[in-house]
Structures are given as structure tokens and as C-alpha cells.
Amino acid sequence: MAAYIQNISTVVPERSYDQSFLRDRMKEYISDKEITQRIIHRIYSKSGINKRHTVIPDFNTNGDPRFFFQEDGTLSVPSTGTRNELYTQKAKELFVETARQTIDENQSVDREHITHVITVSCTGFFAPEPGFEIIQQLGLSPSTQRFHLGFMGCFAAFPAMKMAKAFCESQPDANVLIVCLELCSIHLQPSEVTDNLISASVFADGAAGVIISKDKPTKTNSFELTQFATSIAQESEKDMAWTIGDTGFDMVLSTYVPDIIEANLDQSIQPLFTDYQLTADDINHWALHPGGRAILDKVQQSFGLSEEQISPSRKVLADYGNMSSATILFVLKELLSRPASKKQEAVLAMAFGPGLTIESGLLQKNQVS
């Protein structure tokens, strides 16, 4: 039985900063060593990012208390508890806002039709989990089934979509709402270690929601979820990992990650190609998680892709940075909004996360006349 992404909605915090502004603030606050400042300047300038959104209020002009960057030139290091308090406050608001927008923008599924809610996040925790908040605030049925995927990182939207597809296949009247939300910026670490500087240069805040059901939309463009595949790169778990420390979540994003991904690309997507007798030449669009500019470059080079084939990923990276699990849905939304050359186009979606795990999915974009 087919399952379709009916619509995709995205939400970001109102506050955003240019990447050049953040680069200069990091140089100002992190270190006065010339070598460190040169490294920061190069990392930020070569990131492929123009701006990022955040819930951190530090550079507002309206007098909000600062969280990290203090006015006296010092850099505070909030405890994990303090950071999670901010996450809980902001995430509850954004989870509900994103869910509301996703339902309101759908032309065929109303609130009373939602049967399942899947929430996704790896940047904080609270209980009852976000699905409870969505159901309560939006007045969904108390019998709505809810599930939460936590701490899976940038690829977590894929397990969520696979769950939704399974629900639709086993329950024909299922309408599954997925909301991915990440507030990565609350875990900034005042470190001169290159891996930490890279993490600080790419991660941002954002949320995305989708509704998946067995019904193919007739008035709007949609994606059919065809098949998924999962692969784990051997001996790479230390190159991309989250750990919970006393001062937030410590993100390890090794400089080797793009090379590890490149070395494991073929084996990760081959099951999809084999099952459907496809080759890379049969794929019209590559919806790649823009974990960083170097990752996009490696995938593009490996498969000889044109700039047009991955332009939605580069645009999302430039406009938003890396919002962990929500980012791939931003890419799919961008792709969905673009005109198609034919009624049906093959899309290969991919995301990379802790493990190092490579998740991929074969989708079909259906264009409405």
C-alpha cells in the first residue's frame, strides 16, 4: 500500500544572524590567539552558510538577558539543566506552532483526522513528551497514538517516516503527523578544538512538520514514500556522536566525516538501486541532508551530480544551516515547491548521523498539473 507525504511545513525562530556576524563574535569571544582566529575565520567563511536562526537572545537590542555572550566580553557556560530549561520553554512553543501550521496548511486532513503523532528531537528532553503537548494544545483526540524519537541526530526524520509508512500500511485510515524540532544552538561549547569549532559553525534551530497518509493528494504536489535503506559505516562511531555533559550536549563532528560518508555511499544506497533496477542516472533529484558544505561536495563528486540536482540542499544550507533532524524536511519542502519537468520524478533522499549512520529513501515526486 502506498503512503504519501501530503504536505511539509517549516518553522524557524524569529531571530537570525548572518554567518559573518557569528564568525566575528566567535573570534571575539573564543580566543585571542591568532591561529585560532584564523581557523575560525576560515571555517565560517567556507561553510556555505549565509545565516542561521536561533532561540538565543544574546545580540538583541531590546535588553533581553544574555545566555552565552556577555556584554563584559566573557563567555558564560550554562549547565545542562539551565540549557534544558530553555529548550523546554522554547521547544513546547515551537512544537505546537509547527504542528498547528502543518495541519492548517493541509487541504484534506483536519485535526480530527490525525491518528498518530510522531515527534523527533535530540537537543533536549521533557515529559510528558512533545506529542502530549501537541494533542493538548491543538485539541486532538485523546486517543491519538503518540511516539517520540530522541537522540538519533540528523537522520531521525527517516525512522519517523518509516514508522508513518508502516502505520498507513497497517491502518488504511491513518493520518500521521510528524514534527521534527531541534534547538542546536543552546549547546554551544566554548572550545578551541577544531571539531567543536566546526560544530559551532553549522548548527542552528528549526522545526518541520509533515502529514503522511495513504491518500495521494490531487490538488498539491506530493511525495510517494517508496522504500528506505539503512547503513552503518564501520569503525566510525567516534567521528559523529553526542554525549551529555555537565555543560550541555557535547557534539563530536570530526573533520573525517565527509570522507567517511564518501567511502560508504555506494553500499548504503545499493539496496534501493538493486530492488528497483535503478542506477544513479535514473534519479532526477538528490535531496541530501546538508550536514555541511564538504558533505554535499563529496556526494556531488561521487555520483557526478549537476548543481541543479542538489541545489535545494545547498539553498537550505545557505539559508538555515544544519538543523539536525528537521533539515532534510526543509530540503524536501524546497524541492516540492519547484516546478517539475514531468509528472513523476525520482528522488533519492539521504541523511547522515551518529553511528556513523547513513539513512536513504527512494521517493517519487508527483507533480499536479
Q: Key features?
A:
single chain, 369 residues, alpha+beta, Peroxisomal Thiolase, Chain A, domain 1, nine-stranded mixed sheet, two-stranded antiparallel ribbon, 10 helices, 13 strands, Polyketide_synthase_type-III, Chalcone/stilbene_synt_N
Describe the structure in your own words.
- The protein is an alpha+beta fold.
- It has a domain at 222-366: Peroxisomal Thiolase, Chain A, domain 1 (3-Layer(aba) Sandwich).
- The chain is built from 10 helices and 13 strands.
- The protein has helices at 19-30, 34-45, 80-104, 130-138, 157-170, 194-202, 257-276, 293-303, 307-320, 327-337, and strands spanning 4-11, 16-18, 51-53, 116-121, 145-150, 175-183, 205-213, 222-232, 240-245, 248-253, 285-288, 344-353, 357-366.
- Helix 4 links the parallel strand 4 and strand 5 (145-150).
- Keywords: Transferase.
- Residues 8-215 form the Chalcone/stilbene synthase N-terminal domain.
- GO terms for molecular function: acyltransferase activity, transferring groups other than amino-acyl groups.
- Residues 230-364 form the Chalcone/stilbene synthase C-terminal domain.
